[in-house]
Amino acid sequence: MAAMGRPKAAIAAQIWGIGCWVYIFLDCIVVELGRSMEPFQRMDLTAGQWVGYASICVFLLVVEGIRAFQLSFAPLLVKRSRELQGDSPCWELLLAPFFVAGLVSATPKRLCKSWLLIALLIPGLALSVPHLPYPWRQAVDAGVVLGLGWGTSAVLGFWLRGALYDRWPEARKRT
């Protein structure tokens, strides 16, 4: 009886692992969206500031959304979610969001990369971006919204493609 519940537990853990990250990304998008739209509401930027705003948005879309998310983090999340199976230890199933992000039960290199990114990137942004003056904070927020939106779409796209068509992503090899 318990063995029959394990595949269901693995599927639930896969959904929990991916769903948690999608929720975090969507929550960030909602929080940042209002502030990022402030220049459009005020309509007080100079031509140069609009160019800067757009440049920052495009830069973050490419660097965060495409390079970091689509080519690296999204395939990692989805690939590792598939590794959660019926024979996975219960603690891996419970900690699925950490597992899929490579924060537990990973190679030492993956653990180091994942924890360093979280330990440096998130506090670094949280400490620096709020101190940027208008409209540059709003531009960074808009770029983050675009990057996270693209990245969230990539995660969902890879995951749905894997779940529906059994075509799972391979993590990109660095050269």
Instruction: Give the overall form.
Output: elongated
Task: Give me the Rg, rounded.
Answer: 19 Å
Strand content: under 5%
Largest sheet: none
Helical coverage, percent range: over 70%
Give a quick precis of the structure.
This protein has helices spanning 2-36, 38-42, 47-82, 90-94, 96-100, 108-128, 136-165. The protein is mostly helical.
Structure description:
With 175 residues, the chain is an all-alpha fold. It contains seven helices and no strands. The protein has helices spanning 2-36, 38-42, 47-82, 90-94, 96-100, 108-128, 136-165. The mean pLDDT is 91. The chain crosses the membrane at residues 12-33, 53-78, 114-132, 139-160. Keywords: Membrane, Transmembrane, Transmembrane helix.
Brief descriptors of the model:
175 residues, 7 helices
Question: Could you outline the blueprint of secondary structure elements for this entry?
Answer:
Elements: H1 2-36, H2 38-42, H3 47-82, H4 90-94, H5 96-100, H6 108-128, H7 136-165
Helix pairs in contact: 1-3, 1-7, 3-7
